[in-house]
């Protein structure tokens, strides 16, 4: 019994000495509870909303004020024409628009709800919210009639008329796979050298640290691009995923995101001392935020403000926006240049940190 207690004590001291692993093991449950508790929510608030009011009378203003008072929508000013509404949808600042026809006020009336259906779940939820507000507005006027007999709501789902969920999951799965291959696999690249005892070979190598890092990541770049091709083929050939933009621009964007993910993986590998810690850290810092905070499964608009701010630091968020803009909206470089610059800035920053950390380790 005493040898067992001694062994247990030794293992306990070993865990306590490894502070990084201890922080991960104790911190991961708390992080998971907070992420799942706040991120997993079907309720959407403060979604971009606009009214294209062609009636401009008292009933239309009353309906607009009811939408303006709703916590689910944030009124976007300046959308006064059809062209401005389409431009706002393409830019992504608008999630739903209400088109009020001339002569609105005398039943029966017909209203159109235009929704950005690149995320079909969000589009359906917002459309239901708006329909409920319209029914509430007309419920007081229904004297002996149902409100549905007085007003007709015609939904128009932009970019995804049939609300196919695959239009959401193909960009999301591509992002997760690229992050998995590029970041998690490369995060153990340098730590593997340390554990296998081959770091000495690198220490005496005439190659500078930058070239050593490049040599390590090139195979993963090729593997990630091969996975991109497979996912694109399956999405378009099997699931009829549209490809309305440029293939060249899509591949260039994928290469940029792969570079961002690789730089993150290498940075983690230079900061950790074992493959186990590197994998755990990658899972906690990269994979979970990629799935939960990128807008892949759960809309960012439904999250608390602190998580919305944190999501801006998640590279996957910007890549998913790029994929949707190219594949579903048919956008060009003029539509995705801001997201591309953000990914380029992240890549440059993480590569600089990786090279600096690698030099410090070698010293």
From TrEMBL:
Transferase keyword on record: no
Assigned GO CC terms: plasma membrane
Domain ABC transmembrane type-2 per the UniProt entry, residue ranges: 123-361
InterPro entries: ABC-2_transporter_component, ABC2_TM, ABC2_TM_bact-type
Keyword set, alphabetical order: Cell membrane, Membrane, Transmembrane, Transmembrane helix, Transport
Broad class of where this protein is predominantly found: membrane
Transmembrane segments: 21-40, 166-190, 211-235, 247-268, 280-301, 335-355
One GO molecular-function entry: ABC-type transporter activity
Top-rank taxon, per record: Bacteria
Pfam families reported in the protein's UniProt record: ABC2_membrane_3 (PF12698)
Keyword Transmembrane helix included in the entry's annotation: yes
Compartment(s) where it occurs, according to its Swiss-Prot or TrEMBL record: Cell membrane
Membrane topology per record: Multi-pass membrane protein
UniProt similarity note: Belongs to the ABC-2 integral membrane protein family.
Protein known as: ABC transporter permease
């Amino acid at each position: 019994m005493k040898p067992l207690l001694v062994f247990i004590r030794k293992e306990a001291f070993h865990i306590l000495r490894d502070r990084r692993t201890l922080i991960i093991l104790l911190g991961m449950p708390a992080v998971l509870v907070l992420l799942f508790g706040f991120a997993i929510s079907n309720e959407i608030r403060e979604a971009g909303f606009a009214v294209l009011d062609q009636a401009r009378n008292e009933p239309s203003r009353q309906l607009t004020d009811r939408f303006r008072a709703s916590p689910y929508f944030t009124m976007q000013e300046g959308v006064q024409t059809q062209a401005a509404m389409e431009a706002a949808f393409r830019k992504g600042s608008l999630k739903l628009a209400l088109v009020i026809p001339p002569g609105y006020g005398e039943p029966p009336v017909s209203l159109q709800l235009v929704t950005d259906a690149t995320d079909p779940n969000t589009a359906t939820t917002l459309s239901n919210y708006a329909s409920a507000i319209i029914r509430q507005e007309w419920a007081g006027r229904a004297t002996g009639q149902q409100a549905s007999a007085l007003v007709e709501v015609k939904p128009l789902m932009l970019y995804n008329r049939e609300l196919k969920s695959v239009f959401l999951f193909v960009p999301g799965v591509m992002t997760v796979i690229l992050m998995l291959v590029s970041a998690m696999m490369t995060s153990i690249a340098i730590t593997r050298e340390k554990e296998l005892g081959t770091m000495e070979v690198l220490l005496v190598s005439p190659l500078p640290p930058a070239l050593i890092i490049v040599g390590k990541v090139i195979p993963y770049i090729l593997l990630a691009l091969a996975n991109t091709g497979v996912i694109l083929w399956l999405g378009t050939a099997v699931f009829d995923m549209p490809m309305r933009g440029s293939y060249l621009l899509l591949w260039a964007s994928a290469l940029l995101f792969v570079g961002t993910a690789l730089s993150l993986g290498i940075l983690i590998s230079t900061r950790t001392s074992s493959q186990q810690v590197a994998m755990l850290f990658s899972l906690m810092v990269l994979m979970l935020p990629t799935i939960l905070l990128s807008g892949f499964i759960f809309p960012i608009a439904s999250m608390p403000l602190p998580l919305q701010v944190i999501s801006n630091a998640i590279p996957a968020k910007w890549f998913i926006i790029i994929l949707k803009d190219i594949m579903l909206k048919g956008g060009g470089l003029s539509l995705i240049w801001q997201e591309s610059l953000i990914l380029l800035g992240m890549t440059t920053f993480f590569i600089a940190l990786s090279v600096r950390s690698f030099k410090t380790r070698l010293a």
